[in-house]
Design goal:
There is one protein chain. The protein is an alpha/beta fold and 401 residues long. 35% of the residues lie in helices and 24% in strands. The chain is elongated and about 80 Å long.
Length: 401
C-alpha cells in the first residue's frame, strides 16, 4: 500500500500474513510488515527494500509513487535479507540508481547480491541533500547487525531507524500510530526487542545518546507502525529495555514432567501475590515458545526458575531457555530458584551455577524437593516467594510504559 507519511514521504512497504516464523525462529501469530519509504524531492530516495517474496507488489507501489520519475538513490540502512532482498531486482529496474550505505554495507552487498558498482558511501554525520530534504546519517553498529545505520531527515525531523523501534505484527489498514490502534504493538515491541535486539543493549544506548541531540517528530522503523503521536513512548520503552530496567514484577519459568515442580511454582506464585506482587508471568517451558518467555524476562526485574532433575541435568526445556537468556546477556535481574528430584538432585545445583554465570543477585534460599510436595517444601516455597516479593518491593517502581 502507498500512504503519505509527511511532505514528499510515502510508505511503500508490504504486509506478510503468510510467514509463521520470523527468522525461522520466532512465532508470528499476527504476521509482520516490511516497511520501506520513498522520498520524492528534487532527487528521489527509497529507504530500504522488502523481502523478495513481495517484490512485484513493492515495485508497483514505487512506480506509482514515482509517477514517471527516475529513482535516484536507495538508502540501505540494514542488510538483513527481509529488507535487502529486492535490491538486485530494483537495480535492474532502475540501472542508474545510486546505492547509499557504509563500508560494511558494501561488503555485504557484494557477498549477497554481487553488487560492487554504483555505490555512494556515507560516514558518521554526513548528509545526503535531496533538495528540500537533508538526510543525516548515524552509524548504529550491532543494532543489531554490524553494518546498521539510521538516517535522520533534518527537514521533516523524521528518523528512518532500521530495525530499531520495530515490532512484530502486520499493519492493518493504516500505517501511522494516528491511523491505527497501537495498543497490541507494545507487547510485540518488547518481544521483538527481546528476541532480535536484546543482546545489544550497549550499542542501543549509544545510538539513543546520538539521537538525543535531534528533535525527532516521527520514527519510521522497518517493521510495525510509524511512531508519531507515541514516538516519545517508543523511545522511552527502548531506553528502559536497552538498560535492562525491568518493571516491578516476576517472571516464573518452570519445567515439570509429572506436576511436582509445577506445584512448587504455583506455591511460589501464590506467595508473591499475597505479598503484593501484582505483575506475575508464569510459563510452562514445555508449552510456551521461548520468544514469549524472553519477552517477560526483559519486561520484569524478578525471575524465578524451577526445574526437575533430568538425567543429572536441568530439564531440557529449561536448559534451552536459560541458554537463550545467557546469550542475550540480560543484566540486573533478581533471581530465585527451586527444583525437584526423585533419587539424585542436580537441578538446584545447575541453577545456582547459572545465577553465578549471570552475576545476578539471588533472593531467598533455593528450595530442593525430593519426590512429591510435602508440608516442609510448601513452607519453603512460600518463604522463597515472600523473600523475593519483599526484595522486589524494596526497589523503586520502574514500570515499563
Amino acid at each position: 500500500m502507498q500512504i503519505k507519511i509527511a511532505n514528499d514521504i510515502y510508505y511503500v512497504g508490504v504486509n506478510d500474513r503468510r510467514k509463521t516464523l520470523f527468522e525461522n525462529l520466532w512465532p508470528l501469530p499476527d504476521g509482520v510488515s516490511y516497511n520501506s519509504f520513498l522520498i520524492t524531492d528534487e532527487k528521489t530516495a527509497l529507504m530500504d527494500t522488502v523481502d523478495i517474496c513481495y517484490s512485484d507488489l513493492f515495485f508497483r507501489q514505487i512506480e506509482e509513487a514515482l509517477n514517471g520519475r527516475p529513482l535516484d538513490y536507495l538508502v540501505v540502512n540494514h542488510m538483513e535479507p527481509d529488507h535487502s532482498g529486492s535490491i538486485r531486482l530494483l537495480r535492474q529496474l532502475y540501472p542508474g540508481l545510486q546505492i547509499v550505505g557504509n563500508r560494511q554495507t558494501f561488503g555485504m552487498l557484494a557477498g549477497y547480491y554481487g553488487i560492487t558498482e554504483g555505490l555512494h558511501e556515507v560516514r558518521e554525520g554526513e548528509v545526503l541533500d535531496l533538495g528540500r530534504h537533508r538526510l543525516k546519517f548515524y552509524m548504529a553498529p550491532m543494532v543489531h547487525w554490524p553494518e546498521v545505520m539510521v538516517a535522520y531527515d533534518e527537514t521533516d525531523k523524521t528518523l528512518f531507524s532500521a530495525d530499531a523501534f520495530g515490532t512484530y505484527g502486520t499493519l492493518d489498514g493504516g500505517v501511522t500510530d494516528s491511523q491505527i490502534n497501537t495498543d497490541r504493538y507494545r507487547e510485540e515491541m518488547i518481544r521483538y526487542y527481546a528476541n532480535i535486539v536484546g543482546k545489544y543493549g550497549n550499542p542501543v544506548q549509544k545510538l539513543l545518546q546520538k539521537l538525543s541531540l535531534q528533535d525527532i517528530q516521527t520514527i519510521c522503523p522497518t517493521h510495525g507502525p510509524v511512531w508519531h503521536e507515541r514516538r516519545t513512548d517508543a523511545i522511552h520503552l527502548y531506553d528502559r529495555l536497552c538498560r535492562y530496567e525491568g518493571a516491578t514484577g516476576v517472571t516464573i519459568l518452570y519445567g515439570s514432567m509429572y506436576g511436582h515442580t509445577e506445584q512448587m511454582a504455583e506455591t511460589v506464585a501464590a506467595s508473591l501475590s499475597e505479598q503484593g506482587i501484582r505483575e506475575i508471568a508464569m510459563h510452562d517451558a514445555s508449552k510456551t515458545h521461548a520468544s514469549y518467555m524472553l519477552r517477560d524476562v526483559f519486561k520484569y526485574r524478578g525471575l524465578m526458575v524451577g526445574s526437575p532433575t533430568y538425567s543429572g541435568q536441568l530439564f531440557p526445556a529449561i536448559e534451552s531457555v536459560l541458554k537463550q537468556i545467557e546469550v542475550r546477556e540480560v543484566k540486573n535481574r533478581l533471581f530465585g530458584y527451586f527444583g525437584s528430584f526423585t533419587w539424585a538432585g542436580m537441578a538446584v545445583k545447575r541453577l545456582a551455577a547459572f545465577a553465578e554465570t549471570m552475576k545476578w543477585e539471588t533472593a531467598g534460599e533455593p528450595v530442593e524437593q525430593k519426590q512429591a510436595m510435602s508440608d516442609e517444601s510448601r513452607r519453603k516455597c512460600r518463604e522463597l516467594g515472600k523473600v523475593m516479593a519483599e526484595r522486589m518491593l524494596s526497589f523503586n517502581d520502574s514500570k515499563i510504559q
